[in-house]
Write a structure and sequence with these properties.
The structure holds two protein chains of two kinds. By secondary structure, chain A is mainly α. Helices cover 38% and strands 8% of the residues of chain A. In chain A, the strands form two sheets. Chain A has a two-stranded antiparallel ribbon. Chain A starts with a helix and ends with a helix. In chain B, 38% of the residues lie in helices and 16% in strands. Chain B contains 13 helices and 17 strands. In chain B, the strands form four sheets. Chain B has a six-stranded mixed β-sheet with strand order 1-14-13-17-15-16, sandwiched between helices. Chain B has a four-stranded antiparallel β-sheet with strand order 2-8-7-4, with no helix packed on it. In chain B, strand 13 and strand 14 form a beta hairpin. Classes of the chains: A mainly alpha, B alpha/beta.
Amino acid sequence: MLTTIIAIATLAIIFGLVLGFAAIRFKVEGDPIVDKIDSVLPQTQCGQCTFPGCRPYAEAIAKGEADINQCPPGGEAVINELADLLGVDPKPLNEEHGEHTDKTVVYIDEDICIGCTLCIQACPVDAIVGAAKLMHTVIEDECTGCDLCIPVCPVDCIYIKPVTETISTWKWPLPGSSLNAEKESS
Amino acid sequence: MMSMRLWKIFGGLKLPGFKSMSMSQATQPAPLPKTLTLPLKQHIGIDAEPVVKVGDTVLKGQMIATSGNYVSAPVHAPSSGKVTAIKKHRIPHPSGIETDCIIIETDGEERWVECKEHSNYRQLDAKTLRDIIREAGIVGLGGAGFPSFIKLDAGSSNMIDTLILNGAECEPYITCDAMLMQEQSRKVIDGLNIMRHALQAKHCIIAVEDNKRAAHTMLVNALHDHEAEYIDVIQVPTLYPAGGEKQLIKTLTGKEVPSNGLPINIGVVCHNVATAAATATAVLEGKPLISRYVTITGEGVDHPCNLDVLFGTPFSELINLCGRNSHAEQFIMGGPMMGFEISNDDVPVIKTSNCILVKSENPTPDYIMPCIRCGQCAEVCPAQLLPQQLYWYSRAKNFDKTQDYNLFDCIECGCCSYVCPSHIPLVQYFRFAKTEIWTQEQEKEKSDIARQRHEFRQFRMERKKAENEERKRQKRELLKKVNKEKDNSEDAKKAAIEAAMARVKARREAQHTAQENTDNLTDEQKHLIAEIDSRRKKAKDKS
């Protein structure tokens, strides 16, 4: 009887120590699901989801405070991926947050720009260069198309333009969506 | 010449050749067009940048665009003339997208730029040779257009066993390589020697399909005795796609190029015969790549033939030259299997334009039926893939799965589409999936950059905030210190004032005592003083 109690107690102490050690040694910093969700989001940082950026939105999804259909730039593709990741049913994009459009960038009409730096402060990815009372310009490659710079411009010199397709970004269409496809099989 | 064992490739098709129609006459140079349109991107890699301005006069062979990037190739003026514009123009590409082109109006004088010959190339090291080949703008002329100098770098550890010149030209209709091997066999072998020197390859093979007897004979005859010791001219069975790089390597060496690997990983390098000829021209004559053999064929032209065409010549002029007829409705660059349709013949010949196939439109396109899982596609696939699995997953946009089924080992030869009884355009699906995956990867990269930039911005703002806080705190402290010092100094002042006042008081008191010093006075004087004092007192009391 006593031996049993001692044996069980010893084992309990050993396992307790091992688990306790493991909990400290292999502690996962932060919530790994947030990183996963964040990596799915398009990183436009536009705030259309009502959160101040993609990561806060990812955190809100992880906590269950936000739905997965609040990201217009990501559109259906992101919703499906999130549904896949979180094991929930995909749902259509919530229209309240905006519509999914093709990727755009902005450009500054440099004749009108007065160099107020307001857009520079608004840009979430530092894609606008310039200085006070000097002309500003957008680094198109870095622009995410969040359009946050447009409302702050006092002279309305920022315009949206679609990303032009080049030879290197061109994609073959899905067969059936164009005549080419049918010809191929002939 | 030793006899070599050949290996069989998996799958493949016996296709009708349609080759003799364009081989009936010797290759002629195409007439000089009035305007030449030269796309800045005629190769795989980064676009070249123009180094000439509108209005500049250029000489034949002068470099007009180049790039500092490694994977890139310069572009040269194919003839002398004037640069009239640098603008967007349609190029031969399945998208029909317009890209930047340099437009040259030719003056017909054909004045050459100064050419630097390197007939002593054996004294040059591999790096110098590669630079010459790079500067000459040479890219793979078989169709892919990969800058050739990169494939002439044996690397540090890779030993090159076999250098293969690909003259198989397995696709129907195309005969430009066959004609080149017949007419310029010596140049092809010279080019091979230069490539061999650059790679220090042990053994060289020129592979020719066994339906090109003339080319084979001409090459064998052109070999010098000592060259025959290390160069084999080998006939490979006519089977589509025997000329695919991986398939040819398998046929000749029995080795398979690993998935996601390169031929160089197994000690083999493969170049096209036309690339070799261009290399010989570049090194021995110092002339850059400005023209190529192009097959103009198909039922849409009356006189199919091969022409030696300057880059930038419009397709339409070549088709007219070969007798455009009423069947000319559909234009394909490349062959019927791997080529792509271009909607309009107002496009220039570029470095990768091996063939212009002019056909009539198929009036009744085959109706696409559901897959019946017959498995014929898997039987003919030379890459030993499962086209129907890839088809399902590509159609469902399940791109992870397509990669599990090795989508990227697909060489897009089109055998599966050709045999499919349901006329499913399988290759189209695979091309679609490939470009989708590339786009997704690019977008992922872009979003990663955006995330980094956003995080850095936040970090920067927080740092700025912290710095501001710190500055404010320091200022506050400084203020406090100054105030304290101020307080201290006021005390000192007060003390000094008090001390001064005390000193004054002391002096006064001393004076007063001095006044009271009346001991030595006479009585009269004492009386007088008492009188004055009493008067003073009275006056004081009064006031």
